[in-house]
Amino acid sequence: MDIRRKSLFFSDVMIRGYYPGYIERVWKEEGVELEIEEGDLEVIRQYPSQFLAFSYYKTTAHEAGKPSFFDTGGEQNTPNPFLKTSDWGWQIDPMGFRYTLNEVYDRYQVPLFPVENGLGAVDVVEDGKIHDSYRIDYLREHLKALQEAIKDGVEVMGYAYWGPIDIVSAGTGEMKKRYGFIYVDKDNEGNGTLKRLRKDSFDWYKHVIETNGECLNQGW
Q1: What is residue 69's predicted lDDT score, i.e. its pLDDT?
Q2: Which residues fall within 8 angstroms of residue 45, CB to CB, at 6 or more apart?
Q3: Alpha-carbon torsion 31, 33, 34, 38, what sign?
Q4: Are the C-beta atoms of residues 15 and 48 closer than 8 Å to each other?
Q5: What is the pTM for the complete model shown?
């Protein structure tokens, strides 16, 4: 996963105060002219961002000979055969989360804040309950990867799961692509009572918070 070429030039300018040389080359080759006022970069360098917040859901693989710039999982994405995937084909890669935390921290040396991390899945209500062990497994492994990154020396200022309650998926516009710990009775056509139900993951994550993560290596 070439995270530098994908998106880090955005944070480079806000934390380092300048754009990296490779993106200037890309802009030149693509005929892009950057409009920036004189003195803007000096102001940014004087008041750089004190931390970096980012989203992490998955990794992608690259196949030799195919375009890769800004490939975030669309038609250019090549599945990694060694990883499991979600109901929507997103690769589940907690080890990639640890790698990303280490690489980004090594680049910037500022506190990191993963503000989005979660699993979109089809949840089935059975006798008024939702047994989403797949979401618990996803979250457990990613939080364990986060713990390992902290042990590696990465400074982490917080973690935010996406998202605590089911909403319409921003990526697909579907209600059935559910991320939450709380189920909302509403379907893709807008039908439903809006009744809320706690999923198994609700009680599990509550226990994670209560134990400050000490339960992650224990069964549930």
Answers
A1: 54
A2: 16, 17, 18
A3: positive
A4: yes
A5: 0.90
